[in-house]
Structure formats: C-alpha cells, structure tokens
Amino acid sequence: MVHPKRMIWSNCLHGLVLLLVVALGLDKAFGGLPETTERVRPSIVAVGTHQPLRRPPSVFLGTGFVVAQGRHILTNAHVLPEALDKEHREVLAAFVGRGSQVHWRELEEVARDQEHDVVLLRMHGDPLPALKLDPSLAREGQEIAFTGFPIGMVLGLYPVTHRGIISAVSPMVIPVKSGQSLSRDLVQRLKNPFDVYQLDATAYPGNSGSPLFQPDTGRVLGIVNKVLLTQGKEKVLETPSGISFAVPIVHAVNLMQKAGVSP
Predict the structure, then answer these.
(1) Would you tell me how many other CB atoms lie within 10 Å of the CB of residue 243?
(2) pLDDT tens-digit series, residues 76-107
(3) Rounded alpha-carbon distances, angstroms, from residue 209 to 6, 66, 181, 183, 184
(4) Do the beta carbons of residue 207 and residue 228 sit within 8 Å?
(5) What is the C-alpha separation between 263 and 254, in angstroms, rounded?
(6) How many CB atoms lie under 10 A from the CB of residue 43?
(7) Which is it for the CA torsion 256, 224, 227, 149, positive or negative?
(8) Nearest residue to 204 via CA among 175, 230, 229
(9) Cβ–Cβ under 8 Å, residues 58 and 95
(10) What is the mean predicted confidence (pLDDT) over 206-223?
(11) How far apart, in whole angstroms, are the C-alpha atoms of residue 154 and residue 246?
C-alpha cells in the first residue's frame, strides 16, 4: 500500500513536470508550417518609396518585417534607396495590407549596419504584430522558411512563403571582377569575413529583407539578403539559380541594442 504522503508528493512532482513541459513547449504552439505562416504573415511588409505626384506613386524595393513593440521594421540596408527626392515629397514607406487593400506608412531610418547589410526603421502609425528573434546560431541541415514578396507588388500585396534547409554556414565573400574593384573596406572584409547561412531554397530579388524563421515556432533566425544570379536579372524568375543567402539575426539584434530598441 502506497503511503498517502508519498502519493501526494508524487502527484505534486508530476504536476510540476507537466508545467515545465508546457512552459518549454510554448514556442511549439504554432504547430506546422501552415499555422506558423498564418501567424507570421501579418508581420510582413513591403518596403519602398511613395511620392504623391509620381506615376505610379508607390515603388517596391524589398521586403521587411515587424519587430520590437510593433513599431520597428528590419530589412536589408541594400533595399533602401541611396537618396530620396525630398523636393518632390518622396518618402521611405512600408506597404501594409493584403491584395489590393494596401495602405502606406512613412518610415524613418533609426540605425544601419552596412557591413552586415541590416537596417532598422521606425514605422509611423499603429503597431503591428511583431516577430520574435532567435540570436542563437542555426545549424546546417536545419529546416527553415521565409516569407516575402518575390515579385513585388505587381499583382497586389500577396506574401509568398518558401521552405528549405540551411545547407551551409559559410563566410560571406563578395567576388570582384578585377583587382581594381578592391577597396580598402572590401579588403578588410575579405580578411575578416562573417558567417552567413547558405539556403537550399529558392529566393528572388524581391525577397531581400524577408525573415528566415523556424517552421514550427516562427522565431526569426536570419534575414534573406542575397540571391546568386547566374545571368541577367530579367531571367531570374524564369531560371533561378536556387542559391540564396541570409544574414544571421544576431547582427540585427546587436544593431537594435545599440539603438536602444529592445528586441
């Protein structure tokens, strides 16, 4: 016969174990990729510029995603234009919504990390659902997904999700055509390259700035920043190379912390 006190202790211990399992499994609550995609999609925005008198007034440049408290956007630094035509009221903009029901919100740059191709933007207006970031290093062979706008807003704002794996964690090396193209900064970067994720998944130029996330939790591991083009840009949709890269999200986390924005 089991002693009553021992039974009570056993039940309490069992209850604590269940609570611990639930607590550790909160990030798994999304289920599979369809459920995760449904949660991630409201945090995806198109990034571009808006100029009232231009035709068309809105120009798509890349993808971004909402972080922090819902009022900040992360994307690639290379997505942003070199300059804005402020004389004609051109502004940096996030395009929010779905299909043809799209509106724009003004963006302003908060901080930039040119070396790692990351920029943090502040979005005007009401907050949007923010994605959680996972700064730990991802593993080769790990399953991933990313959501963005591979062909821009040609058919309206319809986010597209791709899935694949991280095929390699390797140094970022930018090839140059000749020695004359080697600047002092580029030589320094070649001497001290940082690791990026090579993806076994097809991304397109419009995917620049897309969040690379875990299919079961939606936690962001990186930012899609480069598509290897084997021919002209006009052919990339027809015959993509299938080789894409992403910057580990830790660089964005570091940038946010330097800017005083909590991830």
Answers:
(1) 17
(2) 999 999 999 999 999 999 999 998 889 999 99
(3) 57, 11, 26, 26, 27
(4) no
(5) 9
(6) 23
(7) negative
(8) 229
(9) yes
(10) 97
(11) 24
